Amino acid sequence: MEKKDMEWLMKMLDEKLNNQTFLITNSVTKNVMEALDEKMRCITEENNILKSKVSELQLEVKFLKNEKRKNNLIFFGVEEIGKTECELVDCIMEAIIESGTHFQSNEISNIYRIGKRINNKNRPVVVSITSLWKKHIILRNKSKLPQGIYIKEDYSKEVLEIRKQLQMQYRHPNPAGHRGEEDYYPPTNLTKKLQHKSYKKSRQKNDIINVATYNTLSLKTDESLIELILALKNINWAILGLSEVRRLGENIEDHGDFVFYYKGETPGQYGTGFLIKKEFKSYIDEFIGISERIVILNLKLPSKNEKWSIVQVYSPTEKSSKSEIESFYSILTDAIKNHSHNNLIVMGDFNARIGERRDGEEIVLGPYCSGIRTRNGEMLIQLAYENNLKILNSSYKNRENNRWTWIHPDGYHKNEIDYILTNRSHKFQDCRVINNVNFNSNHRMVRAKLQLQQTLKKTDPL
Question: In which domain of life is the source organism classified (predicted)?
Fold first, then answer.
């Protein structure tokens, strides 16, 4: 009996030990797996962040490479025998002058040959021109260069490959037509009318131009300009007025995808300017730099060759002296009177709060405004009255949290101080604050939609 009891006890003990071992193993395994999962989750998140940063850096590198190439021209057919760098500069300069272009040696910032030297072959010469506009003039006169010398733009390999493919498509069109098969059934009148209607809808959509204003706090460096362009990647904009550019001097820079104009007079302060997308470069008539606080962009828009003026401003703050503010508005009024077209937009950082609309102000203000009017606000309302302008921010209903354009460094106080005004408010569809610009500024962008074509001709009934 004792032996059987002992066997039974041993058996029970084995089972209990096995159960405990199983539970401990499961518990340890579960804890280890959870720890591994948590670790892997963190690693995955870090990996995704690194991938995103690498993608951004690749875009920046690509942008910088394109920037480096934008002023380059490649000369072919330039003799190589006995050509030192100075002789090469003189040779290129003589060829350019012979084409009818006024040119000096100090307009060449860099010059070098590319490729390995091979007997009896002239290697191409890369020439960096200091001015983009001078480069375009040289290209315009390239047919007049001396015999045997010709030039091309310095495109990247990716661009050259795309151009090659497009040229092949142009030279060898698809014989089967755009549908990829023999088209034995030409379109009926019904199809033509539907296509015509679709085309008109497309035209209507394309006739909307997004005009915006933004205080960037600073665009002093090329890196900050690159960061702004990346931040605007997913934003719909065509013309962007800039406040607080903080670049010294006045310049027009063609970056390929956009034109950048700025004017600044005080080192490290103030400054205004414009960014214009490449699709709208042909509309530019002129830039006028009135001061570091006021610049004008005159345009010829395609709708009936309408002439428009966009005035971008950066007003003195409320803390400025009365004489400084009055001087700013006096210069602004004269600029509008002497340099603008009949179709007018005035926009920017006015450092002003317009407050609630008062009796009789329906001409200059819409119903959607609130708060207390400040001294700068009074000056802005007076400017609107004198120039028949309406403040578009106040004309469209938006939630209160989507109206402020500036936030105090304390993160608490918020105000609406950036505005878009126009004397053609009936030609605009919308005006709102854009709150998803990922850029280092305590301002938010304000954007309005300008509709060039108001009505469409009625198509014939089907």
Answer: Eukaryota
